[in-house]
Amino acid sequence: MRDTDAQPIGGIARRLTGILKARGIDPSTPVSDENEPSPALEAAQARIPARYQDAVADHPVVAAWVREVAAAGRRGPQGSPGIAQGRSLLIVGTTGTGKTHQAYGAVRSLLAAGVRLRWKATTAADLYAELRPRQGSDGERELHDLARCPLLIIDDLGAAKASEWTEEITTRLIDRRYTEMLPTLVTTNLGMADLRAHIGDRVASRLTEMTDKVILDGPDRRRLIAAERRRLAAV
């Protein structure tokens, strides 16, 4: 993966650290107390895919984003914060580097921190399949709901086959979330140049402005796990 316009991770983390300190929040404080299970997190586990039910947002930029979103939440009747407007994350990396793990880890951390949260998650391929016009389906209503959801995960953006229709859907969805400044977690295997060619300049431009970029590198963790299993089986 090539990406020549990525912002250094240290710069993003320092900016978020400055925001948190200005609000009197210690960035080194854990997001939640693991010894006190969150009822909201326990209830949400059924909606989180089995593979990611123990996901942890341990990347420093993702963890800092969680703290910023939790700190900015509007207090509700019970005193717990609800998710508010805020920055989004573009999590970029080759296959198997943990992008989806970090995205679901961020959701789990917010819930564990007591944030009142309505969220949805979809892959880009499932998004287009769900919204494609067909009898008995109201794609416009579903698109409207996704566009207004307080927190949305779009996994594997750029992996589905592109067309004029998919570009239009992506543009409408991202444009609404960009305009309303709604936090969005986007994962992709593509660098920004390749992503721009796949989803179009308008979407890429909005993503560049609305997101902080997280770059995950290293080997494919799935292949490493499979290799370790084969090694243990051979012993």
Automatic annotation (TrEMBL):
SMART domains: AAA
InterPro entries on file: AAA+_ATPase, IstB_ATP-bd, P-loop_NTPase
Domain AAA+ ATPase span(s) in chain numbering: 85-221
Source superkingdom: Bacteria
Ranges where the record places region Disordered: 23-42
UniProt-recorded name of the protein: AAA+ ATPase domain-containing protein
